[in-house]
Structure formats: C-alpha cells, structure tokens
Amino acid sequence: MEIVQRPHRDNLVRWAEQRPEVLVLSADLTSSCEADGFRDAYPERFFSMGMAEQNMMGFAAGLAREGFFPYVHTFAVFVSRRPFDQVAMSIAYPNLPVRLIGFLPGITTPGGVTHQAVDDIGLMRLLPNMTVLECGDATEVEQVLDLAQAVPGPVYVRMLRGEVPRLFDPAEPMVLGRARLLGEGEDLIVLSSGICTEEALRATGALRAHGLSVGHLHVSTLKPFDDPRVRAALASARLGVITLENHSIVGGLGSAVAELMAERGIGARLIRLGLRDTYAHGASRQYLMREYGLDAMALVRAAERLVGEPLGIDEDALAAVRLETMGRAERTEDL
Amino acid sequence: MESIPARPGAATAPGDIRRVATAIRRRVLEHTLENNGGYLSQACSSAEILATLYLGVMRLGPSTAPPTPRPFAGVPGADNPHAFTGADYNGAPAPELDRFIFSPVHYALVLYSLLIELGRLGPDALDAFNRDGSTVELIGAEHSPGHEVTAGSLGQALSQAGGIALARRLRGDTGRVWVFMSDGEFQEGQTWEAFAALAHHRLGNIGVYVDANAQQCDGPMDTVMTTEPLAARLRAFGAEVREVDGHDPVALAEAGEGVGEDGVPRVVIARTDPCRGIDRLRERWPKLHYVRFKNEAEFNLYRGLLAGLSEGDA
C-alpha cells in the first residue's frame, strides 16, 4: 500500500493557487499542521494569530462575513475544546463559511490527554449549522478541501498529517454525505471512520476468509448523517452492527449510528468500538489502539460476540491480510 | 423631538448630541418603568458616547432598514434564506463608509433609543421591545436593529471586528470599523488576545469606544476584578489610548479623530457616571447593573423623574 508523505502540505498550496479568497489562519502550529507550504507560497494570505484560539475564531468569523474563506489550521483539541463558545457563537450561529481544519485526531498523537481530541466530533456535531468531515486516507486528505469549500456554512474537518496511507483510489472521489462501500455482506455490518478504517479492512478481510458475510462502509461525513446507503446497510444486518472509531463512543460515529438505528426502527444489535467514555494518555498510536480496543483485533472480538462463538482468528491471521489501495478493479459495486 | 439624520462626515453641534443623549435617558427610563426593570444605568453612562459616535465620529450611510422592526425570521442556517442582521439600520456597507460593531448587547435599549432619535428607527419601534417573536430584544442579537454580529457572550465582538477590519484592509477599503465595548469586557481573556492581534497585524482602521462606568453585575468593578490601570494596560498591548470625560461630546469626538491614518488601533476610554442624568439612582449603588423598582412608591418616584427629565438636564 502506498504511503504518502504529508499529503495536505502540497495539496493545500496547489488547491489554493487559483482561489485568492482562501486565507489560512494559524495559531503557532503552522508546520505541525502542514500549512507552512501555504505560508511560504502566499504570505499575503497567511495570518499568524499566535496561541490565542478564541480570538482566532472571531477573526475568522469577521473575515468570513466579508466574503473570505478562512481555513483555520490548528490541532483538533484547540478547535473544539478551548474556543468552543467562540466557534458556537461567532461562527456556527451565523452559519459563516469558516473551515476549521483540526489535526491530531484521537490517539494519533503521543502528546497525551491535552493533545488527544477524543471528543471533537461529538462537540462539533452538537453545533447547529456545522458540517463534520473526517479524513481516512491520503486520497480523502487531498479531496476534502473541495467538499468543504462547497458547503455554504461552517465545516469542521478532522484532518490527518505526516505519513498517510492511501486506501482509496483518487479516481473514486470523496462525496459529501456519502459513505464509501468497501464490502458487501449481511451477517455483520461494519462502519468505520478515520484511521480505524485501515484496521477494519484487516479485520473484515480475516472475517470473510472465515466465511462470514461482512458489509463494510467507511464514513467520512459525520454530519449530516443521512446517507441512504448507510440506512440500507444497517437495515440488512443479520447478526448485528459494529462501529469502529478513533473517538469516544459518546457523540461520534457510534452515537450517530445508534441514533439513526433507533429513529428508523432498525432492531439489530450494535457494538460501538472506540474510547469507552475515558481519556487516554501519552503513548504510541499502535499501543493506544490496542489498549483502548480501536484495532483490528478489537473488531474481531466484537464480531465473535455477535456471532456467538470464537472465530479462531489470531494476530498472524490479521497480519497476513494484505492491504492495497482500493482501485476501480477491486471496488465493490454500488448498492 | 425632531430627528437628526447622521450624514457622512457632517459635524453635529455638541448641544444636539446632548439633546439626543437626554432623549435616550428619557426613553430608556420610560421602558424600564413599563417593563418593571431594565439596563437603566447603562443608558445613563453611555448616552453621550453612543450619540457622539453616530453624530460626530462615524461615517455611516442612511438606514436601508424598515422603520418598524422586522419580526424574527428564524436563526441563520442553510435552510433559512430569510435570516438577516440589524446592520442595515447603520446604512448599506460601502468601501469608504464606516462600520459599527456593538459588543455589550445588554445595552440594546440604549442603541434602539438612539436609532429612534436619529430617525433610523420609527418612533413606535419600541412597541416591539421585549415582546415574543420580536427582534427588538432585551439583550440584543445580530438580528436586532443596529446590531451586526453575535456578541452576547461578552468579549467576542472585538475579535470579529478585527476580522472585518482585516478583510477591509485586504480589500483596500478606506472606511473604518468602530466598536463599542463595556469596561467589564476587559476581564475576558479574549479581549486581550484581540488587542495583541490588532497591534501585531497593525490594524489601525479600528477604533474602540469603552464605556468605563466601573460597574458590573456583582457591583463595583474594583471589588469584583480590577482591570485598572486600563489605559496603561492597553498601551502596553500596543494601542493608542485616549481617556476622556464620557459625557463630553466634544472630547469624545476629538478622541476619535485620525483613526485609520496609521497602523495603530485606537481606544477611547470614556470615563462615565452610571447615574448621570438620574441622580436618584445613586441611592441604589452599588446594585446598578439591572434596575428593578421595588414598590409603588418607587414607581411613582421614577415616573415623576421621567416627567422632569427634559432637554438639557444631562
């Protein structure tokens, strides 16, 4: 599988070249949020706002009121927690087209509890007018700006940085409000988001090899959450539904699925995998994904609970699942 | 009284500004009596500041909004094309004209009363004050007459005004951005973040008038949380600061001259008296933030004051 180095950095420069109305605001995390390329290429459109996120949100709101499109770059925790009132009142209430680009989602950082956004999707989903997007691979990192820019109101983007795998063929575009169908099946329905989709692909591969029919959708639009394909898949689940996300199970993908199933009267069992109403701590991504049950093995264990018997899938079986970028030839046909 | 339309660049005699300020106090007292409560001391402290801004400082076009305030049209959102702001009472935006951002929105009745005196709102506009479904709210919102941004969470408007000022500089506008603030907002950390950013980005096209009445909800500011020496603090943050008598229209207007001619944000600290024009309020000190009359005798007392509050009293 292809690993792309810092896909946002170059993409932002390329994408913004013919968009003079696009500005970038940064709070002392410019290189850390891969906005340094933009800063160097278009210094007149880059504004350093210092470590002062509340004020930065107000400035972004004022710029957006005047017809500019501010792309606020900082860590996800500093978008969602510290300036929550400013995001709610200065940006979301007036439905202003500010784009909040939040880096270091969930346990992707060893920076510990202060740096780990485990509640950002929940907080942003709470806000009326806010659209919530999450990137799961390099292709989505490269395409999410087009999606965000097409939304007339505020958008929160849960972004990836650094070494990002390419799971999806760039010819298969990311579409607002539409999940990617990664596999069809009806015994189990798996919905995954963000970095957890790579883990889910390993697990679903092993589960299918074991003879289970597993439907798998990758969700990149967390709000609005009204994709008819997701509804149809959920309704088809024979043994149950499993969600896997790099976030608290409160407020994120698992909550969105639970709300949808309850409101639609979809009476299947649901297992929400993610941080179980807990904070995390500083350690490696791999270690934390194992510790908190966000990895492929956690999904296998959840499948066993729904199937009602051990499946005998071990670490070696998961490691043996070979992941490739999902191209046109391999993709599953649309429902 | 006869309305005084603000004309861009036209100077208004200080006597006219005083007359408008007195009319504001009278109207706010009248509605405080009608509602049995209101932000009366804020009218006493800020009447000359706001009147001077509209009549002697800001370059605004004529109102393009209806004299009778529009009813609430729903919160802004993708599915609501009818949402609006109250900025059109301050005229249509134009590159050479100024903008007004009203931060302490519990002063809303003061602003509504001023807009009526200026003919920007109709004489009966306050019939809708504090009524369900109205935009003439007790605590103003961005749809309220004369308001442009959501500012009720104090300390947020200055940052939004900074963004507007930055956008105007990027566009090459010559108009300025004026912000009216209360001194209590200088207890919010965001206010200081905003001043740091205004100075760092050399946003000299912004001018801030502060009603320094030294009062807040819990009482005198120096017993709640000291912000003095405010002028020295602001100067240390890179602002050009003028301290003036906030009831002197001449001094208030002079303090705003030259804004937009350099890269330094301007702050006018208007030292004010929260009982100015209604002396009997002093007996309520230090509980001045929201005035509610206790009994019929007090009602009658203030009704009598209303009758006596005539032009020139201030």
From TrEMBL, chain A:
Residues 2-166 form the Transketolase-like pyrimidine-binding domain. The keyword Aminoacyl-tRNA synthetase does not apply. The keyword RNA-binding does not apply. Its cofactor is thiamine diphosphate. It holds the Pfam family Transketolase_C. Keywords: Thiamine pyrophosphate. Belongs to the transketolase family. PANTHER family: PYRUVATE DEHYDROGENASE E1 COMPONENT, TRANSKETOLASE-LIKE PYRIMIDINE-BINDING DOMAIN-CONTAINING PROTEIN. This is Transketolase. It comes from Marichromatium gracile.
UniProtKB/TrEMBL annotation, chain B:
Its cofactor is thiamine diphosphate. It comes from the Bacteria. It holds the Pfam family Transketolase_N. Residues 96-258 form the Transketolase N-terminal domain. Keywords: Thiamine pyrophosphate. InterPro entries: THDP-binding, Transketolase_N. PANTHER family: TRANSKETOLASE N-TERMINAL SECTION-RELATED. Belongs to the transketolase family. This is Transketolase. It comes from Marichromatium gracile.
